[in-house]
Write a structure and sequence with these properties.
heterodimer, A: alpha/beta, eight-stranded mixed sheet, about 35% helix, about 25% strand, B: mainly alpha, three-stranded antiparallel sheet, two-stranded antiparallel ribbon, 15 helices, 5 strands, elongated
């Protein structure tokens, strides 16, 4: 195989008020014809900046390529005149980005945007361009492409938009495709569709792919060679099986150890909760949002975000809700801590129904139920010192004197692994992981009984995620907490939870002890979900690729809500809605669970 | 001297209150590192430093013009005039300001009527009598030849003095109106955005109706009912202009209330007023400040327009707007009398331009999208 792209001792730097930042600091590697080379690393490691350097798209004037060489075939890209570089971009090297929501222009139809690319690079016009655009949509697996070509980006789902992006990137049959976190914003079942599409197109067109990702699992299943980046440097380079079995660099070892595994022992150390003592019972919870339209805001429909949900959480237990985006898992959390007023059903906390309590009656429960949020960058008030943030809850619930509260805030800060004298600092002085620790300190300062962790580690780097999970587990035992863990990440959930509920379109499809559900899933959706998780310890499992997208909760399918995507659906599934059938602590909502 | 001191008074407390409140808000903000670093960034540019200096100068003049006193009456030979029976010193009923005291050399230079800048003679011809009693037509010499930098007006007042006296009016209209507007805009905007529902509907209804009425009409009717005057003008300009800021703040609050730190406070059971004033308002302050500075200059200009069409401050108040209004007739003469208009224009631009430059710099420094974090 000949070499397409050679990067030699690349240095990309940024001028900032704090001095020069070396985003890429002496990276060298080569990309060969038809292979997939993956750059992995945590945020800030310089992997995206390497890709932008290749495209000559480093944000100027702050950023610039200080030295090094990037050779594409026999041409040096650094210092190439912009006109020639434009000829290479799109034609020879093209790129797809992480965020399919913003990468397409919302005011043009996808057809227009595809035709634009074809016009620019292949000189196609009129009917020829249109039919080529339809062909491309067909090629990337979009159903009814002749109709979809007239759709605007907002009419497509995230997965479909990413398909369109791929179609645009591959329109001119480039020799190199740079994919920067192409599936990070997508759900796992959609992620596996897209990854499969990319590898199918690669073997068909012979495109070399430079894959940039933070996800070790994605890398393991898709890359021919892997480069691990740390602080702008390439610290290790190896084929997947070699890298995962015998990592050489300490950082690689640390990174691999931090990846939550789908097999083997879990990280959990704390005791399983007391099965006798029920802390939270959710009975037939429904949360329906009316869709209002027109001048008088008449309701024209209902989004059934949560549609009849029962869960029990025992004292001292970690209960997890998993599901893809839009399944209603976050809404469940918000109904329980009463950021939302449920439309129907009961939320019994220690035997008291809090689902319909008003502000005053709710106040004691505001202390006992706490929440840890997903985004450490928006969950702390940027204009408030962290000491004040942590003390605010104690002040609200009249715990202690001001001096007590300050002392406790400092103690909590130390307990979550930060220094107690940082109380006077503002949130922007901390990293994402540190901010998440502050969020935990805020929640635990008021001594709650139940903590709802809504995607609490989803936006953290994998090594930081491991530390936070560890901390949560320690604190659970120490403070006698119960957790409701809401996540899309099954591997994380497997690590931390005692019991699990899998949600699909506002309903639970399967629930039971975590290990049993994950090792032996009964519901077809659970099986697909678990098989879609990319793993580093691939044991030759069969991936189940679900067709299509999750239907809208405003208009759920009749009968079993999963039937349009289910490989095992029969006629009865279309008509009859299954209920959760109990079977020795496990419950499955599938009409055919006995046969399958 | 002691007699002088006994008769100090705040000629109108408004300016002092305005400056005081602004200073207080400024000192509160400066306690926060975010604002301190923003200010450092603002003052890094020379243009901004010059603007700030000019603004400070205007403010100082406005303050000096607002500290008043009653000067003691004096006889022709400068002896204090005393009450014939009690022997107490008598004071002038018309108050003077500290600025008047400083500008006495200027204000005391009266002429009979118009004279061009730095002219030696009067602008208009008169019948002159020479020593022998002969009469000729000609330009009489001025009492203070070549001393009026910007000439004199119809009744012989120094135009430079008038323009300087106009500063206080401009600053009050800009500053006091802005301070009137901000609390209302914050209160209504944040309340509407945070509570939504019927509260939002009601507030939106009020400001939509208010902004649908032509503001000129509203100002005229207000002035008819409550009389012409500086305070009335400030109030009515405030009423007609809080809606813009309110709308912006409502939108921003709608966005902020969905952020996780507001949700976190909500889930913690923090009271709603505290969420609004501890978590939402501080995160809106940059918008408020930028709008305040930029709308300040808009109001100074609006005063000129209103006075020009005759519904501004009363005739007794010296303002740039009324100077421009006078210029209407003066420009119709031949040869034209241009210096009053030019004086008002230069002084107005001298206030508005630095205010705009300062506001723009502030926006650049505080806009989170332009800030590197």
């Amino acid at each position: 195989m000949s070499t397409l792209l050679t990067i030699n001792d690349l240095h990309t730097q940024f001028r900032t008020p704090e001095g020069l930042v070396r985003a890429v600091d002496g990276v060298s590697f080569e990309l060969r014809e038809g292979e997939t080379y993956a750059l992995v690393g945590e945020s800030g490691s310089g992997k995206s900046m390497t890709a932008l350097s290749v495209m000559q798209l480093v944000p100027r004037p702050a950023g610039f390529i200080a030295s090094g060489s990037i050779r594409f075939e026999d041409r040096e890209l650094i210092g190439l005149p912009p006109v020639e570089m434009r000829g290479i971009r799109g034609n020879d090297i093209s790129m797809i980005f992480q965020e399919p929501m913003t990468a397409l222009n919302p005011v043009f139809t996808i057809g227009n945007q595809l035709i634009e690319v074809l016009k620019l690079h292949q000189g196609l016009r009129g009917e020829a361009a249109l039919s080529a655009a339809i062909d491309m949509l067909d090629h990337v697996g979009i159903a009814a492409p002749d109709q979809r070509v007239r759709d605007f980006p907002h009419q497509l789902s995230g997965g479909m938009r990413q398909r369109v992006m791929i179609a645009m990137a591959l329109a001119c049959r480039p020799k190199i495709l740079i994919a920067d976190e192409p599936t990070t914003a997508l759900d796992v079942t959609i992620q596996s569709q897209i990854l499969e599409l990319m590898s199918a197109l690669q073997s068909e067109l012979g495109t070399a792919i430079l894959l940039i990702t933070h996800n070790m699992g994605v890398v393991a299943e898709n890359a021919d060679r892997i480069g691990v980046m740390l602080d702008g440097k390439l610290v290790e380079e190896a084929p997947p099986n070699q890298l995962f079995t015998t990592p050489q660099h300490d950082y690689t070892k640390k990174l691999l150890a931090a990846v939550p595994s789908m097999t083997g022992p879990t990280r959990r150390k704390s005791e399983i909760g007391n099965r006798k003592s029920e802390m939270l019972q959710v009975v037939d919870l429904k949360m329906h949002f009316p869709i209002r339209k027109g001048l008088f805001k008449r309701p024209v429909g209902t989004v059934r975000a949560v549609d009849g949900l029962d869960i029990n959480i025992h004292r001292g237990e970690t209960f997890a809700i998993v599901g893809e985006s839009g399944c209603g898992k976050t809404t469940v959390g918000k109904c329980i801590n009463r950021l939302l007023d449920p439309s129907h059903g009961q939320v019994r906390f220690d035997g008291h129904d809090i689902a319909s309590l008003k502000r005053v009656g709710l106040q004691p429960y505001r202390q006992r139920i706490q929440m840890i949020f997903q985004d450490p960058f928006s969950s702390l008030d940027p204009r408030m010192r962290i000491g004040a943030t942590i003390s605010e809850g104690m002040q609200t619930h009249n715990i202690g004197t001001p001096a007590d509260r300050t002392a406790r805030a400092a103690a909590m800060l130390e307990r979550v692994g930060l220094e107690g004298d940082l109380l006077e600092r503002y949130p922007h002085e901390f990293s994402g992981g540190q901010r998440q620790r502050i969020g935990i300190a805020r929640a635990l300062a008021v001594e709650p009984d139940l903590v709802i962790c809504d995607e609490a580690t989803s936006s953290l780097d994998v090594s930081v995620q491991a530390q936070i999970l560890e901390l949560l587990d320690e604190l659970k035992a120490e403070f006698g907490l119960s957790y409701l863990f809401i996540s899309h990440d099954i591997a994380v959930v497997r690590q931390v939870s005692d019991r699990i509920a899998v949600m699909y379109l506002g309903q639970i499809v399967e629930t039971g002890p975590t290990a049993e559900v994950i090792d032996n899933p009964q519901h077809p959706y659970t099986r697909a979900l678990i098989s879609a998780v990319p793993r580093i310890d691939d044991d030759g499992r069969q991936q189940i690729i679900l067709p299509g997208d999750v239907p809208s909760p405003a208009n759920p399918p009749s009968g079993c809500r999963f039937h349009p995507r289910c490989a095992h659906a029969i006629d009865t599934c279309r008509r009859t809605a299954p209920t959760l059938e109990s079977d020795e602590g496990r419950q499955v909502a599938c009409l055919r669970s006995a046969e399958l | 001297m002691t007699a002088l001191l006994n008769n100090w008074y705040a000629k109108d407390a408004i300016v002092l209150v305005v400056v005081g409140i602004m200073g207080w808000i400024g000192s509160l903000l400066m306690r926060r590192e975010v604002w301190r670093s923003a200010m450092r960034q603002v003052f890094r540019r020379r243009m901004v430093r010059i603007s700030a200096f000019i603004l400070a100068l205007y403010t100082l003049i406005a303050i000096l013009d607002s500290v008043g006193y009653h000067p003691p009456l004096r006889d022709a030979d400068h002896a204090l005039h005393r009450h014939p029976e009690t022997g107490r010193v008598l004071y002038d009923q018309d108050g003077k300001s500290l600025l008047d005291l400083i500008l006495t050399p200027l204000s005391a230079m009266h002429e009979k009527t118009y004279s061009a800048p730095l002219a030696a003679t009067q602008f208009t011809m008169e019948t002159l009598y020479d020593d022998e009693g002969n009469t000729t037509r000609g330009y009489p010499p001025l009492a203070h030849p070549r001393r009026h930098l910007l000439g004199t007006d119809r009744v012989g007042n120094d135009v430079l003095y008038l323009a300087i006296k106009g500063i206080r009016t401009g600053m009050i209209i800009g500053g006091f109106t802005t301070l009137l507007v901000i609390p209302f805009a914050i209160l209504f905007g944040v309340t509407a955005g945070y509570f939504r529902g019927w509260v939002d509907d009601a507030i939106q209804y009020v400001y939509t109706v208010l902004s649908s009425i032509p503001s000129l009409l509203l100002i005229i009717s207000f002035m008819i009912v409550f009389g012409r005057g500086l305070t009335q003008l400030c109030i009515i300009m405030g009423i007609t202009s809080w809606t813009g800021l309110c709308r912006v703040l409502r939108g921003e609050t709608l966005k902020l209330r969905e952020l996780e730190y507001v949700q976190a406070a909500e889930a913690m059971g923090v009271s709603r007023p505290r969420i609004m004033f501890q978590h939402i308002v501080p995160n809106l302050m940059h918008i408020v400040l930028i709008t305040a500075v930029l709308s300040f200059s808009g109001r100074v200009l609006a005063e000129a327009v209103l006075s020009y069409i005759g519904i501004g401050v009363g005739a007794a108040t010296i303002s740039w707007g009324s100077m421009i209004n006078d210029a209407r007739q003066e420009l119709a003469r031949d040869p034209i009398i241009w210096w009053k208009l030019v004086a008002a224009f230069v002084f107005m631009v001298g206030l508005v331009l630095p205010a705009n430059l300062f506001g723009d710099a502030l926006r650049d420094a505080l806009d989170p999208r332009l800030r590197t974090e």
